Amino acid sequence: MEAVRELARLVRDAGRTTALTGAGISTDSGIPDFRGPNGLWTRDPGAASLFSFDRYVADADVRRRAWRTRRDHAAWTARPNAGHRALVDLERAGRLGTIVTQNIDGLHQRAGSSPERVIEVHGTLHEVQCLSCGDRTPMRQTLLRVEAGEEDPPCALCGGILKSATISFGQSLQVATLRRATTCVAESDLLVAIGTSLRVYPAAGLVDLALGAGARVAIVNAEPTPYDRAAHVVVREPIGEALPAVVALLGGTERVGLAQESPG
Fold this sequence. Notes:
Blueprint: H1 2-13, E1 17-21, H2 40-43, H3 53-58, H4 60-71, H5 82-92, E2 98-101, H6 107-111, E3 118-120, E4 123-130, E5 136-138, H7 139-147, E6 162-166, H8 175-186, E7 190-194, H9 205-212, E8 216-220, E9 233-235, H10 239-249
Parallel strand pairs: 1-2, 1-7, 2-3, 7-8, 8-9
Antiparallel strand pairs: 4-5, 4-6
Helix pairs in contact: 1-10, 5-10, 8-9
């Protein structure tokens, strides 16, 4: 628990803290990660093709499989866990300014994190976007069409290809979203990377940005990451235990300082 105590000290001393979260924070909610021992791609290497933008656009079979995967995604029944709730506690205590998340499940918002403080750099599973006209609609609306027998439903407005409003391999991140994330990290005193392998860029590059700006970096992850040696503290304890312990060490959910500014 020494590493957890050091993390609590870093959070206590930071004027502005940003969290960078990855798939590992949602595994306790029943959503598998990608590269862990029981990860999606570890168990089914072929599933990676569903995350290739070029293959998705070119191959109707890939799209049909992707829609079945979206229909059956664990996010629809998942509930926020202790790790998500601990970040809510830190926000309400004035200890956490922004969450930059690589996750698409929306569990931070469901746990109670202020939506304006959550930056979803890889997009959201809860919306669908047309790749031709850009129309965005709720995911549930399109899944009802899938359940009714449309295996690869086209855009109702223009007939174009529909895709979840998430970022696939080979697809560029939204410029405005990435700029907002980099600004928040560059202005932080502490970046806490939670449940992320720190192998996917440009999100992983936020650690380099934080270090270059003179911020402290903490890593909470079960597996080693490429940034462990550069981090000021590495916590290997389970996320659902480590983050609530940090909250407890800081005095629980009672407001302990001035609220930090919402991300711009």
